[in-house]
Structure formats: structure tokens, C-alpha cells
Design brief:
By secondary structure, this protein is α+β, with helices and mostly antiparallel strands. It has two domains: 155 residues, Neutral Protease, domain 2, CATH 1.10.390; 59 residues, no CATH class. Strands 5-4-7 form a three-stranded antiparallel beta sheet, with no helix packed on it. Helix 3 runs antiparallel to helix 4 and helix 3 crosses helix 6. The longest helix has 23 residues. 25% of the residues are buried.
């Protein structure tokens, strides 16, 4: 594997350099170990490598501040172009339309797709990530030394995705509105629930579907604080409003 000298010469404290270096190293797995099947699958290389760089920032360097700073920066960039940028499946052909969009879609949005998958599979009670890690390892093992498409990755993910539910003694009703998505768009979004004892909290997933979703939750105690999307699990901006 060849890496240019500048990969290791870049110095700074923004976190960009660490992401860059780990991104390039990650191509041993994503791009070389598993090669995209076609130009539409370019994000399986660049998006996976970009996510790997970001993940390295959090898991190895233990720098959550820089992790979320870059994640939120990518979100702002993606949303700023949401009405103009082509879909992620355009791949490298986006360069012909707008070079900036190629980076936004294949690198940033590709990384965001994996970040959302990671949060979809995480155990919200223990924050255990074994399911996500198993998914990525399974995909790599199945397609190592071969070409893989987005559909191939989707099939592996479908084998690992699962949901769970719990019961309780206090009823919470909430409403979630979503905009700038197709009418029947669905996304499981984590909700953090705080209680009177500030040392205690719980995580659940709200299945947000369509323009308005109303949900009822059974909880073990009266909730005092609610935070939707607390882990930046979904590429979206959150706002609170009164329910009248």
C-alpha cells in the first residue's frame, strides 16, 4: 500500500490530521481489501475510510469533543447542499457536476451512513457495540479480496439488524415532526430519558415515520428530561416545541 509523504507530515490540533492518516490506513480494508463493485459504490471505500478515521478519533484517541465537532461540521455541509447535491449512488461522477459534492456524498455522507448504522445497532442500555463491529467484520470477511456493491453490504446489514422493547409503570406520550424527507421515510431515533435521580437515565428508540409520529412509552418512573438524538445518531437538526 502506497501513502504519500504528506499523509504523515500534516500537523495541527483540529483533529483533521488524525482523521486523514487513519482514513488512508483504513483503505487497507475498505478500497483494497474490499473493492467497490462499480462507480456507484465508491462510498464503500471513501465513506468507510472516512468513518474509520472519525471512529479512531473517539475509540482510540478518546477525544469526544473533536469527534462530535467533525461530525456536526459534516452534517452542516451536507444539509447546506441537500437540495442540490446528487445522491450518494452517483459516486465519482459527482466530480463532473460539482467536485465539492463528490466529497460531501462519498466521504462525509458515506461516513454519516455508517455512523447512523452504528447507533442503530448499539445496545442503548450498555452502549455495547458488538453488533456493529460484528456487522463490519462479517462484511469484510465475506468480500475480502473481492468486489462488493451497496446491495451486498445491505444484505449483510439485514442479517444483523434487530430491535427490542421494554415495559414499565409510567406512561409518556410524545410527538415528533420531521421535514425535508419523503412522505413515508422511516428512521429509528434514540431518545435519552432523565429521571429525578440525575445519576439515572434510559435510552429508547423512537420509530419516526412520515411527517408526524406520536409515540407512547411505558417507563419505570416519571421522566424529568428528554433529549432526542443525543448521540448525533441521525443526520438531522433537532428543535424542541410545545405540544398544544
Amino acid at each position: 500500500m502506497y501513502l504519500p509523504v504528506w499523509t504523515f507530515q500534516a500537523i495541527g490540533d483540529s483533529g483533521y490530521e488524525e482523521i486523514l492518516r487513519s482514513h488512508e490506513m483504513a483503505h487497507q480494508w475498505w478500497g483494497i481489501g474490499v473493492e467497490p463493485a462499480g462507480y456507484r459504490d465508491r462510498w464503500l471505500s471513501e465513506g468507510f475510510a472516512e468513518f474509520s478515521g472519525l471512529w479512531y478519533m473517539q475509540i482510540v484517541l478518546h477525544d469526544n469533543e473533536k469527534f462530535f465537532r467533525h461530525l456536526k461540521h459534516w452534517r452542516r455541509e451536507i444539509r447546506a447542499r441537500r437540495n442540490d447535491a446528487p445522491p450518494i449512488g452517483i459516486g465519482w461522477r459527482a466530480v463532473q457536476l460539482n467536485p465539492r459534492d463528490a466529497t460531501l456524498m462519498d466521504y462525509y455522507k458515506g461516513a454519516w451512513v455508517l455512523h447512523m448504522l452504528r447507533n442503530l445497532l448499539i445496545d442503548l442500555r450498555t452502549m455495547n457495540e458488538d453488533a456493529f463491529i460484528a456487522t463490519m467484520r462479517d462484511f469484510y470477511r465475506q468480500y475480502r479480496g473481492r468486489r462488493a456493491s451497496t446491495r451486498d453490504f445491505q444484505k449483510v446489514v439485514e442479517q444483523h439488524v434487530g430491535m427490542d422493547a421494554q415495559g414499565g409503570h409510567y406512561t409518556l406520550r410524545l410527538r415528533v415532526r420531521q421535514e425535508d424527507v419523503p412522505e413515508h421515510f422511516m428512521m429509528p431515533v434514540p431518545l435519552k430519558i432523565g429521571f429525578a435521580d440525575t445519576s439515572l437515565h434510559a435510552y429508547v428508540r423512537i420509530k419516526v415515520t412520515g411527517p408526524v409520529t406520536e409515540a407512547t412509552l411505558d417507563l419505570p418512573a416519571e421522566p424529568r428530561r428528554l433529549e432526542l438524538n443525543p448521540l448525533e445518531s441521525v443526520l438531522a437538526e433537532m428543535k424542541e416545541e410545545d405540544w398544544n
